[in-house]
Amino acid sequence: MSQRSKQFHLNAFLMGVGHHEAAWRHPRTNADDVRSVGHFAELGRIAERGKLDSVFFADGLAVGPRIKHNALATFEPVTLLTAIAGATEHIGLIATSSTTYSDPFTTARKFASLDHISGGRAGWNIVTSAGEDEAANFGLDAIPDHLGRYQRAEEFVDAAVALWDSWEDDAVVLDPDTGVFADPDKVHAIDHAGAHFRIRGPLNSPRSPQGRPLLVQAGSSESGKDFAARYAEAVFTAQRTLAQGQEFYRDLKARVTAHGRHADELKVLPGIVPFIAPTESEARELEREFTELISPDYALRQLSAILGVDLTAHSLDAPLPPLPSVHEIQGNKSRYELVKELAESDALTVRELIGLLGGGRGHRTFAGTPEQIADELQLWFEQGAADGFNIMPPYLPGGLTDFVDQVVPILQRRGLFRAEYTASTLRGHYGLAHPSSQFAASRARNSA
Amino acid sequence: MSQRSKQFHLNAFLMGVGHHEAAWRHPRTNADDVRSVGHFAELGRIAERGKLDSVFFADGLAVGPRIKHNALATFEPVTLLTAIAGATEHIGLIATSSTTYSDPFTTARKFASLDHISGGRAGWNIVTSAGEDEAANFGLDAIPDHLGRYQRAEEFVDAAVALWDSWEDDAVVLDPDTGVFADPDKVHAIDHAGAHFRIRGPLNSPRSPQGRPLLVQAGSSESGKDFAARYAEAVFTAQRTLAQGQEFYRDLKARVTAHGRHADELKVLPGIVPFIAPTESEARELEREFTELISPDYALRQLSAILGVDLTAHSLDAPLPPLPSVHEIQGNKSRYELVKELAESDALTVRELIGLLGGGRGHRTFAGTPEQIADELQLWFEQGAADGFNIMPPYLPGGLTDFVDQVVPILQRRGLFRAEYTASTLRGHYGLAHPSSQFAASRARNSA
Ligand SMILES: Cc1cc2nc3c(=O)[nH]c(=O)nc-3n(C[C@H](O)[C@H](O)[C@H](O)COP(=O)(O)O)c2cc1C
Ligand SMILES: Cc1cc2nc3c(=O)[nH]c(=O)nc-3n(C[C@H](O)[C@H](O)[C@H](O)COP(=O)(O)O)c2cc1C
Question: Residue B134 belongs to what domain range?
Answer without folding.
Answer: 9-276+363-447
